[in-house]
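Quick one:
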Amino acid sequence: MKIIISLSVGGEQVKEDVVEIEDDKLEELSEEEVEAAAEAVVRQWADRKLSIAWEVAEPE
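Output:
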């Protein structure tokens, strides 16, 4: 299974990537289990690729 991930920020696409799950790993899974596996792969991708930094700005 090929999964195309499209990341947008503020309505603008900033990154597109493709990840794959080997079809033989999905053969015996139900539709719900396949969906859960795809979601897990996308979440792992996001954990590896995304980071957000922030800080509180002090008034001048």
